[in-house]
Every structure is written in structure tokens, then in C-alpha cells.
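Notes to self after the Tuesday call (sharing in case useful).
The group wants a holo model before anyone commits to mutagenesis around the pocket. I volunteered. Ligand is nicotinamide-adenine-dinucleotide. Logging inputs and output together so the record is complete.
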Amino acid sequence: MKQIGVIGAGAMGSGIAQLAAMHGHEVVLYDAYPAAIERAKQQLQGILNRLAEKGKISPQDAVAIFGRLHFATELAAFADSGVVIEAIVEDLDLKKGVLGDLEGIIGEDAIIATNTSSLAVTAIAASLKNPGRCAGMHFFNPAPVMRLVEIVPAVQTRDEVVEELYKLGESWGKTAVRAKDTPGFIVNRVARPFYGEALRILDEGVASAATIDWAVTKYGEFRMGPFTLMDYIGHDVNFTVTETVYHAFYQEPRYKPSFSQKALVDAGMLGRKSGRGFYEYGENAEMPEPDRNEHVGKQIFNRILIMLINEAADAVFWRIASPEDIDLAMTQGVNYPKGLLRWANEIGIQNCVARMDALYDEYREDRYRCSPLLRKMANASEQFFQ
Ligand SMILES: NC(=O)c1ccc[n+]([C@@H]2O[C@H](COP(=O)([O-])OP(=O)(O)OC[C@H]3O[C@@H](n4cnc5c(N)ncnc54)[C@H](O)[C@@H]3O)[C@@H](O)[C@H]2O)c1
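Result:
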């Protein structure tokens, strides 16, 4: 069993280290800052103790898992690692710097994976002497809990590296999907309308945040409405992802950020963590009541859903991933109640096209253009997963 190296002992790095150690690997967790290592060590010890107290693992396992975790503040500790996963701050130059140094230490056959969310894996790989050994391995937070991992080959990545990372992810109990190296990969791209269209409906004054959340949970059976979820994620994080994806796609109008969300970020109303976002979270705070109008609720939900379906279909059109992997990514990665492409089949592809065209007719904005794939499929009476 290969030794796993993890660079960066922050939220993601420590989670990935825990995951690998729980699946039997010896793990080296490195950070440039000794304080970060100390914090990760204490947190991991605390997490394993709690898992043992709750009976999820035995006390002996907790000790054994912690024993497999080795903490380091020198890159030299990676000399024997077979796979090194980079999870430092999201900064291309810093990532290139640390991976360039790493290459002089690890063996010829060692694989380098990056957990970047928004940088081009190809640009990171390009900093290496041997870029073919590098690919994206994008986990979700918290890494030990979230079921999905997106495997993202760079242009240079060798096939066997992709295969090995895919198998490694599956051996850690994850659902692994393959995504093309484009902004947002699968989940952070296809999920954009869940937030963006909800914000747009709010900004148009069609309904309140509480009503939109009610509509999406009631008629779509999503676990959380978009505003509750954005408050939970934090507007600083969610707005940055939207803005990054928008600019990375050269100002694609579908991903245009919302001024209402920017205002919350500017005001420091970041959601749950700061006590206020779209909702208030103080001790005596009351949640606003939705307007439970069935007709309006269904209209709101259908508009968000069709934008999500259009986005998923467009990701197939641009060959970002297979239809199977896109549905898996959204159901396993962000707990959607149903795969979006299966949902498209249920609604009927011709119906999906009609709904997109109705939105386009109303607004005459590029944002509402129907994916060419849906139109082609509707004309040929085709369905996904035939
Ligand atoms: N937080 C998420 O939800 C999430 C989800 C998926 C992917 N990611 C990606 O994972 C990576 C890490 O994110 P995070 O949320 O864990 O960040 P974080 O800020 O919690 O942790 C980053 C760690 O990197 C360390 N670090 C900074 N510069 C370093 C260097 N030059 N060498 C070694 N260590 C260095 C820091 O000390 C810190 O401990 C980013 O690329 C991010 O985009 C984050």
C-alpha cells in the first residue's frame, strides 16, 4: 500500500490525510507553517477520539489511525511517498513553487495530485519537469464525509496516472468521476444556476428568499433551499466561486454574479458564521415566513430546475464529463435529490427546450439560450442514457 503525502494541513489537507490514514495508508502531512501542523495534529486527534466515543471506530483503531499519520514541516519527508496530494492555498505561483521543489525529492514514479478548485490543472502540471505524472483530485469539504471525488486529467497527464487516482479514490470509499480540466470541473459549474437563478428571481422581486427556499425544498425535494445553503457555505466563499467561474469563462452571462450577494459580502454579512446573511441567526432571530402560493412556488422551482438541467446538458455538449458522471457528481457531491439528466428525461427533452425558449423569449438574454444538445436531442426524439 503506497504511502500518501499531503501538502497543506488546512481544512482540506487534514481531511484528506485522515481519509487516507483511515483506509490503511501511512500518511505524511506537511505544512510550511509549524502552527498549522500543530493545529491539524490536535484536530485530527480530537476527531479520532470523537469517532471512537461515538462507536464509529474502535479505540484501538483510533490509536492505529493516528499512528499512521506523520507530521512534517520539511518537504524531504515525502521521499517515500507514492502519491502526493497538494492542498495548499489557492494560489498558482505558490502551488507551482512547492510542487517544483517536491519533484526534486520524490521518486520518478510518484504521482502528484492537486486538490485545486478553480485553477487550471494543466497550468499547475506545466510547472513540473514531468507533467505527465500530475492530475487534479478534487475532494469536497469535509473530505472524509463527502462521497464524491472529481478526477481531472491535465492536458499532459498520462492515462495510467488518471487510472491510478481513480482507483485510489474508489478504494477510499468515494464515488470517483472524471472531468475535463475546465473552470469549476463538474459540480462547481453545473451547480451555478442553483444559486444564480435563485438570486436573479430575488433581484427581479418575484419572491422573497424564504419563498424561493420553500419552493425549491417543497417542489424539488432539495435538502436545503439556495439561500439557506448560501448562508451556510458563506457568501465570501460562494460569491468568490461564482465570480471566478464567471471570469474564467470570459464573462459568460449564465454565471453573472449578483449585486445582492456582493452587497452582503461588502457588508460582512457572510451568513451563519457572521450571524447574518439572507437570514438572521442570533439567539432570538426568527425565520421569515414564505408566501406559500402553489402556483408561484411551482413557477420558481421550475425556472431554477430548467436552468440546472440546461447547464448539465451543456456540460455534456462540451464533453466536460459523461452524462452518467454528471448525474453521479450532482447526486453524490451535492446531494441533489435526482440526477439532472434523468430529471430532463422525466420532464421530456422537448418540454425542456420549450421551457428554455420561453425564458429566452421573455428576456432576450444570452443567459437563457437553450443548450444546442437539448435542441438536437429534442429534434431527434432522443433521451439521455438510451
Ligand atoms: N475549503 C473547501 O471547501 C475546498 C474544497 C475543495 C477544494 N479546495 C481547495 O483545497 C485547497 C486548500 O483549501 P483549504 O480550504 O484547505 O485551505 P486552508 O486555508 O484551510 O489551508 C491551506 C493550508 O496551506 C498552507 N500553506 C500555505 N502556503 C503553503 C506553502 N507554500 N507550502 C505549504 N503549505 C502552505 C497553510 O498554512 C494552510 O494550512 C485549495 O486549493 C482549495 O481551492 C477547498
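Two things stood out.
Strands lie at 4-7, 27-30, 69-72, 83-86, 111-114, 134-139, 148-153, 175-178.
The chain has two domains: 4-178, 189-379.
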